[in-house]
Amino acid sequence: MGTWLLPLGDLTPDQIRAVEIKPDQNRAVFGVAGSGKTQVLIHRADYLARTYNTSPEKYRVFVFTNVIKHYIKSGVQFLGLPDETVSTFDHWCSTLYQKEISRSLPWIGRTINYEKIRLSVLALLKAHPALQKTLDFVLVDEGQDLSPESFEIISLAAQHVTVFADRMQQIFDDGAGEEQILKKIGIRKENATLLGAYRNSPYVAQLAAYFITDAVRRKQYLSQIGVQQKIKERPLCFIARNHDEEMDHMAEIIRQRQLMNERIGIIVPKNNQVHGFATAMQMRGIEIEKAVPPQRPGMPMDYDFDNVLPKIATYHSAKGLTFDSVLLPKITKSSFFNITDSELRQRMLFVGIARATQWVYLSTTKGAELNEFSLLKDAAADKHLTIQDGNIVAKKPVRVQQDGDFDAPF
Q1: Burial of 334 from C-beta contacts in 10 A (0-12 / 13-18 / 19+)
Q2: pLDDT of 355-391, one tens digit each?
Q3: What's the pTM?
Q4: Is 230 helix (H, G, I), strand (E, B) or coil?
Q5: Are 48 and 58 in contact (CB under 8 A)?
């Protein structure tokens, strides 16, 4: 599999302008899902490092999870940026904590206490001006999911900061809002807006739009769809009669997409479903790699984004990833039982759908549908989604073509 990163010359004029914004003040770049924020971020890191002859130890690219860090590895290598320049923000904080505060990290049970580490690092930087501005520049991906104090730390640590963010993809409880980001990095407004949803096909973007709660933002998002689909394939939602039927149908979908040589992502709400679904697919003869963070810091990853094996991850770990087809199983109340905020559930589904470039498949169990399933019904009524009911649809429906659209895939 080739790198996902486009050459600089293949970026749009708006994207290139964002790459080359002068670092004479901190910058904020907002853009919708699929607008190329991560593409721009990596190219901007290369541009700043070359233009200002910055050595690798003097700059950092902060991504939100170890999964996305592993994903962008090929893009970083494509531009010749050293691997160590890309890390999660919490990893960088932990390294500074161990160097300046204590070699032993604080823990809560079996989990590192990253919140305590961040607060300790913030206090350290405030108390020791000599430790401030040691980095020439920092670029932040998925900025909407970092906490406000994180941006205070970054502003103290770096002479220049560029943040890339999209509020519609905010799915972490303590994430900073746009106004908080701007305030913490000391600017009044964003410096660039990436307008086009270039990555997502029109059918994918149209379905994702149903899960944007703000009507104005929804209209803006739909006006920015920019990719033309070679094959107009409508997203599909399957209503299974039981768990086994849902797994059987998903296995068949995966086999069909593999025949099309697609990169496939499976996104689920809960960590235990990552392992459970991978086992269920293995029992059906399908090998899946689990895109999960290592159990302990420093342990190697057990998956490789440079191969074509399907990947499975949670909504939170899948942020920033891109696949040709995305499968979202278990759209049920029990899977989202700990997410009580309907707007947050909708943002999670938006994030999941927006990981796809070409096609989306969803599934649920009859009688257990998530409350937001009503939005999928609205999409089906508007012919932006096909819903198949296991009670009335044959187990393996024939692929048919209607008016140029593949209306009932698989």
Answers
A1: exposed
A2: 999 999 999 999 999 999 999 999 999 999 999 998 7
A3: 0.87
A4: coil
A5: no
